[in-house]
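Researcher: Re-running this chain for the archive, since the previous output was lost when a drive failed. Same request as before.
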Amino acid sequence: MTEQQETLLVPLDQYLKVGIHIGTKFKTKYMENFIYKVRSDGLSILNVQEIDKRLKVIGNFLSQYSPEDILVICRRENGWKAVKAFGKLTGIRVFAGRYPPGILTNSSLEDFMETKLIMVTDPWPDKNAILDSVKAGIPVIALCDTNNTSNNIDLVLPCNNKGKKALGLIFWVLTRDYLKNRGLLQGEFNAPFEDFSDE
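Model: Regenerated structure tokens:
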């Protein structure tokens, strides 16, 4: 086993098995830096080492915030199971489904909430949450596939943000690291991956 593999958050084959590195056929200028190669079928392949590095950074960054100061938004149904499991285990608020516009900016709304950080699973369907965050001056972390742009995003996690298993693994890792970094983990993290994604 190489030294590089030993330092990954999960074994390399686990990343590859869930397809965390499989992008789309479309690539934006911003995401080009994260692309390792383009396959013969036209799909862009993301750099797994870069994904892992960013996951570490995001895990550390998230753990500087209390659960009530973070909001995770996932409009696409393929990420609902993953974000709900993440929210349940960390206490972080999640919106799995349609983001109610204005809840971060309009204090007269009944469901208005204050938050210090938001994370979206895809900047395109979750764009309203990003726009509200910008208005409210809230930093944004976003999971970005090869077809995403990074406008108004403070921290990008390059990844396959459409695959259920890829999203499951991302949120499994983030849950483990958040709990570990905040000293909330007694012993090993043994939440089953199945809680985050269907096998």
